[in-house]
Structures are given as structure tokens and as C-alpha cells.
């Protein structure tokens, strides 16, 4: 297919959107696309989204004042500016933005990673492997975006569709060959990846989360299915990489018509881990594929880590990369910020910061910490406000089941009362000694103060985050800084 050029006129964009109607001067040139009036610059098309809290159509005037050359609307607005009208603008926004930017996802290798846990980790593994193989990389996800080694901050795990197309376009312009992106279930449901053409879609796992947004696990799974449903041969060589040990993969397999590659530990898979050795240094296993057997090591401990590494290996080896280079990339990476990250200040116990914020994530990370701790396991955790309430007691079950002592605290209470969130957590606490310390700083200090030789303190839920969201304000807060300060106050300066 010959791809249309960028810097389109509104006419040519409108022609590429099925069912679009238009009015006004369609010869106006469009150089960018925005879904937020506050970010509009001259030449942009402003896409008006009727949202959960506000209606983007109400900001069209502000967008025009900021220089919007045109509007994309669901209903024509009485403004003297060219407009195109479509029926479901949320689900069409990505197509409009892709047309504006000349379909950037068709011009590079694009990998999408979805699943409840492991997306950030797998995308970082893939980025590292691609770089080791001489590729210029792009990354989009929870830790922000990156083009080569240049970081670009972001708000969401998967940004809004216009932002994605803009980022992919920048990547193309800067010579990126391989772009890898976390694809959240919100993003899938809200059409944020419409307009993206993936070469590879990877599934990590599905366990409970986000049931505040999706009505049930079935709906949550159906949202994940949208990524695989759009893998229908539009790019040559498209493949889906699925976790054979997760039951959801059976459903996802029925959704896609592209080639399927599997990885796993328990069930037979194309890329299989055998002879797994879990240690406090990391994971060791034999990777078995196509009658080949190779030794693999990665510095993040835990069985869950084996799955993440398998997913990345499956992508790399299926792409024809040499396994020595993949192993080298894994060694270079060491770990991912805020994922099972050790804080070492010379103290005779372990302090680990981790981003586990789901029952399954917590279960995995705590079972791993349990195996490596010399003595007690002291866990600090809380649950996010304005998020799935159902996961709160389940996270308590995991924390109390694996720990010797638990400190229940706050984790981004947002607009909820922190004490009420803790009230939802406590019914899930099993038989374990615990205390409630609402103030996260004090909770972390308490854990580090009570820890003795051989103990492990696991501080879960916020990982890389450097903020605490209280009400609608975001204040600086960093578990790593807090743990370091607590250790300093105990006399460990290492
Ligand atoms: C449910 C959800 O995802 N909502 C997102 C959605 O909100 P919304 O549609 O309600 O937007 P709205 O605030 O009503 O505004 C409507 C439109 O007017 C626009 N606007 C608004 C004000 C203004 O002055 N000018 C303007 O143009 C907005 O940009 C928007 O396009 O669009 C907003 C603008 O992009 C997002 O900020 C908002 O994310 C909220 C804050 C959020 O917290 N989302 C989380 C749950 C999320 O998306 N998480 C996923 C999953 C994370 C994971 O992996 O666990 C993620 O991908 O990050
Ligand atoms: N494959 C996995 N299975 C289960 N738990 C995992 C897995 N990988 C990581 N975890 C746990 O989940 C936490 C989050 O991992 P990661 O950030 O890679 O997931 P994510 O899918 O990107 O999360 P988010 O939805 O917030 O973007 C980790 O800190 C770890 O505790
Ligand atoms: N991307 C996830 C991260 C949760 C991290 C945890 N710290 C919280 O705030 O619940 C979410 O927005 O649900
Ligand atoms: Mg993530």
C-alpha cells in the first residue's frame, strides 16, 4: 500500500476516514493533532472528545484561539473554522491522527505488550535487546516514553491516540526502527491504539485489576482481545506471542488470525523454560526451542521474572536475533526501575522497592521475597484510591499470607479517604501481626527501624513513582528516598 504523505489538507484527511462529512475550507493544511485544547499549537486539528468528566466540544473555541486550523467533531459547532464530523469520535480519533501524521506505525516495527502485570518489564527487555542488535528504539509506557535514550514524560501507561501517533511520528523522523509500547486495557477499550498497526502483540497474563472500569473479568479479557483482533495480516509477518500457561491465551488465540507463538513453563510451548533455579541473585533456566537448549540468566528474581524473560526471548529469537546478543542485552539491563529494586546502604537486611499493585503481582513478589529472605519478611503496602475496590482485601490476603509482619498504609488515595481504603483492605488480612500507619513516610520508617539482621523489608505498590496523589494534588514522594532516609537515620550511609 502506498502511504499518504503527511502535512495533509483537511480534504485528504477527511477522504481517509470512512463516513466522515465536512464543512468549511477543506484545503486548509493540517500539521498536527491534539485531543487537549491546552496543548494545541497553530496548524493542529483539535479532536473534540465527549469524556467522562467534560465534553471536548466545549473547549473547541479555546483550541481555535490557540491556533487550531480545523476541528474533528461529533456535532458541527457554530465556529468559523473548517470541521470534519464523524459518528464515534473517541474510536475514530486514532484514525484521524494516523492520517494526519502519515501512518507512522507502518514505517517502523511496532510491538504491543498487554496483560495485567509485566508490561513495563517486557517492554524494557525488548528495548534493551533491540538496542543490543543495533536498532534505534522507541518506547511508550508507564515510565514515560523514550526515543533512543531521550526521555519524554507522559501521564498514562498508554497515551491518548493523538499523542501516540505524534510520538510514533517523532520516532519515524528520528530514525527509530523498533518501537515497543505498553497497551493497557483502558487504552484498548477507549480506542487509544486505533490507527496503530502492530507487527507483534504480546500477552503476559490476566488476573484481577481495574474492575472499577471494566464491569467483570470477562469484559476485562474482551478488552485485551481487541489488541489481538486487530492483528489480521495488514502487516506482513504479524505475530501474536502468548503465555501458554495463562488460560486467557486460549481466548486470545480465537481472536487473532495471525501466526501464534507461545512461551511457558508448565504447558508445552514454542519457547519453554526448564530446570529453573530461583535465587536472590536472579533467575537461571534452560530455554528450550526448536530442539535447541540454552542457558539464560536475568538479574530480577522470581518465577514471574522467568515469564517476562521468556516473552522477550520469544519475540527476539522469532525475529532472528542471536541468542548470545539477547543474553548480553539482559545482562546490560540488570533490572527495571522500581521493579524488585534493592536499596543498599550497608544495612544487614534487604530493602526492596516493588511496583506490585494487584493481588497476583503482590503474591508473586512476596513469594519470591519469602524464598530469599534470611529471616522475617516485613511488608509495607496500601491500595490506590479511585481504583478497583475488589482487589483491596485480596491484596491483604496475599500480604498476610506471605509476610511475618505487615504495615498497611496509603498508596495514592486520590479522592478517597485513606482510612476508608484501609477499611476495605483489613477484612482480607489473615493471621499475621500487623499495624496500620496511614502516613506512608512513617510506615516506611517503621519497617526499616524494626528490621534486623537477615530480614527483608518489601515496600510495594509505588515502584518508580515519585509522587503521592492526595485528593487531586500530586506531591513529591519517593519510596526509594524514604527508605534511604530511614536507613540513614539508623546509621547506614553506605
Ligand atoms: C478513564 C480514563 O482513562 N479517562 C481518561 C480520559 O478522561 P475523559 O475522557 O473523562 O476526559 P475528560 O476529562 O472528560 O475530558 C474530555 C476531553 O476534553 C479534553 N479537554 C479537557 C479540558 C480542557 O481544558 N481541554 C480539553 O481539551 C480532554 O483532553 C478530553 O479529550 O481522557 C483524559 C484526557 O486524556 C485522561 O486524563 C483520563 O484518564 C484518567 C485521568 C485516568 O486516570 N486514567 C487511568 C485509569 C488510565 O487510563 N490508566 C491506564 C491503565 C494503567 C495500567 O496499566 O494500570 C493507562 O493507560 O494509563
Ligand atoms: N509476569 C508477571 N506476572 C506477575 N507479576 C508480575 C509479572 N511481572 C511483574 N510482576 C509484578 O508486577 C509489578 C508490576 O510490573 P510491571 O510494571 O512490569 O507491570 P505492568 O503490567 O507494566 O503494570 P501497569 O499495569 O501498572 O503498567 C512488578 O513490580 C512485579 O511485582
Ligand atoms: N497504572 C496503575 C498503577 C497503580 C499503582 C498504584 N500506585 C496505585 O496508584 O494504585 C493504575 O493507575 O491503576
Ligand atoms: Mg506498566
TrEMBL record:
Listed GO biological process terms: cell division; cell wall organization; peptidoglycan biosynthetic process; regulation of cell shape
Taxonomic placement: Bacteria, Bacillati, Bacillota, Clostridia, Eubacteriales
Mur ligase central domain residues: 113-315
Residues at which meso-2,6-diaminopimelate binds: 387, 411-414, 461, 465
Domain spans labelled Mur ligase N-terminal catalytic: 30-77
Organism: Syntrophobotulus glycolicus (strain DSM 8271 / FlGlyR)
EC id: 6.3.2.13
UniProt xrefs under InterPro entries: Mur-like_cat_sf (IPR036565), Mur_ligase_C (IPR004101), Mur_ligase_C_dom_sf (IPR036615), Mur_ligase_cen (IPR013221), Mur_ligase_N (IPR000713), MurE/MurF_N (IPR035911), UDP-N-AcMur-Glu-dNH2Pim_ligase (IPR005761)
Catalytic activity, as annotated: UDP-N-acetyl-alpha-D-muramoyl-L-alanyl-D-glutamate + meso-2,6-diaminopimelate + ATP = UDP-N-acetyl-alpha-D-muramoyl-L-alanyl-gamma-D-glutamyl-meso-2,6-diaminopimelate + ADP + phosphate + H(+)
Residues modified to N6-carboxylysine: 224
A GO CC term attached to the entry: cytoplasm
Meso-diaminopimelate recognition motif, short sequence motif: residues: 411-414
Modification after translation (UniProt): Carboxylation is probably crucial for Mg(2+) binding and, consequently, for the gamma-phosphate positioning of ATP.
Family, per entry: Belongs to the MurCDEF family. MurE subfamily.
Enzyme class: ligase
Protein name as annotated: UDP-N-acetylmuramoyl-L-alanyl-D-glutamate--2,6-diaminopimelate ligase
Subcellular location, record wording: Cytoplasm
Amino acid at each position: 500500500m502506498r502511504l499518504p504523505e503527511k502535512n495533509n489538507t483537511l480534504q485528504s484527511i477527511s477522504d481517509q476516514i470512512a463516513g466522515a462529512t465536512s464543512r468549511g475550507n477543506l484545503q486548509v493544511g493540517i500539521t498536527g493533532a491534539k485531543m487537549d485544547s491546552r496543548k494545541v499549537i497553530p496548524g493542529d486539528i483539535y479532536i473534540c472528545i465527549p469524556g467522562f468528566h467534560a465534553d471536548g466540544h466545549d473547549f473547541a473555541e479555546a483550541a481555535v484561539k490557540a491556533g487550531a486550523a480545523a476541528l474533528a467533531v461529533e456535532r458541527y459547532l457554530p465556529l468559523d473554522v473548517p470541521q470534519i464530523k464523524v459518528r464515534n469520535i473517541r474510536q475514530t480519533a486514532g484514525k484521524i491522527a494516523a492520517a494526519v501524521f502519515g501512518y507512522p506505525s507502518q514505517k517502523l516495527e511496532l510491538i504491543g505488550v498487554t496483560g495485567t502485570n509485566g508490561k513495563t518489564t517486557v517492554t524494557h527487555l525488548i528495548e534493551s535487546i533491540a538496542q543490543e542488535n543495533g536498532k534505534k528504539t522507541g518506547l511508550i509506557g508507564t515510565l514515560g516514553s523514550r526515543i533512543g535514550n531521550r526521555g519524554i514524560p507522559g501521564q498514562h501507561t498508554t497515551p491518548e491516540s493523538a499523542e501516540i501517533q505524534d510520538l510514533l511520528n517523532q520516532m519515524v523522523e528520528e530514525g527509530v526502527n523498533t518501537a515497543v509500547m505498553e497497551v493497557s486495557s483502558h487504552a484498548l477499550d477507549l480506542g487509544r491504539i486505533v490507527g496503530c498497526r502492530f507487527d507483534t502483540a504480546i500477552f503476559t497474563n490476566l488476573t484481577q485489576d481495574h474492575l472499577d472500569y471494566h464491569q467483570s473479568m470477562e469484559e476485562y479479557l474482551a478488552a485485551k482481545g481487541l489488541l489481538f483482533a486487530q492483528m489480521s495480516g495488514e502487516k506482513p509477518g504479524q505475530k501474536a506471542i502468548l503465555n501458554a500457561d495463562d488460560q486467557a491465551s486460549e481466548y486470545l488465540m480465537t481472536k487473532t488470525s495471525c501466526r501464534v507463538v507461545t512461551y511457558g513453563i508448565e504447558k508445552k510451548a514454542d519457547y519453554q523454560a526448564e530446570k529453573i533455579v530461583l535465587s536472590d541473585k536472579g533467575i537461571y533456566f534452560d530455554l528450550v526451542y526448536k530442539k535447541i537448549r540454552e542457558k539464560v540468566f536475568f538479574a530480577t528474581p522470581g518465577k514471574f521474572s522467568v515469564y517476562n524473560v521468556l516473552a522477550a526471548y520469544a519475540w527476539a529469537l522469532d525475529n532472528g536475533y542471536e541468542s548470545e546478543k539477547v543474553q548480553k542485552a539482559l545482562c546490560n539491563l540488570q533490572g527495571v526501575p522500581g521493579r524488585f529494586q534493592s536499596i543498599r546502604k550497608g544495612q544487614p537486611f534487604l530493602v526492596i522497592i516493588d511496583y506490585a499493585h494487584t493481588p497476583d503481582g503482590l503474591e508473586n513478589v512476596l513469594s519470591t521475597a519469602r524464598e530469599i529472605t534470611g529471616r522475617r519478611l516485613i511488608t509495607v503496602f496500601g491500595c490506590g484510591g479511585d481504583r478497583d475496590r475488589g482487589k483491596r482485601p485480596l491484596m491483604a490476603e496475599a500480604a498476610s499470607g506471605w509476610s511475618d509482619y505487615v504495615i498497611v498504609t496509603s498508596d495514592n488515595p486520590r479522592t478517597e479517604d485513606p482510612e476508608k481504603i484501609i477499611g476495605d483492605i483489613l477484612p482480607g488480612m489473615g493471621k499475621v501481626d500487623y499495624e496500620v500507619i496511614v502516613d506512608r513516610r512513617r510506615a516506611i520508617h517503621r519497617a526499616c527501624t524494626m528490621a534486623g539482621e537477615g530480614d527483608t523489608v518489601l515496600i510495594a505498590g509505588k515502584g518508580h513513582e515519585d509522587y503521592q496523589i492526595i485528593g487531586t494534588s500530586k506531591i513529591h514522594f519517593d519510596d526509594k528516598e524514604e527508605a534511604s532516609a530511614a536507613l540513614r537515620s539508623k546509621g547506614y550511609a553506605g
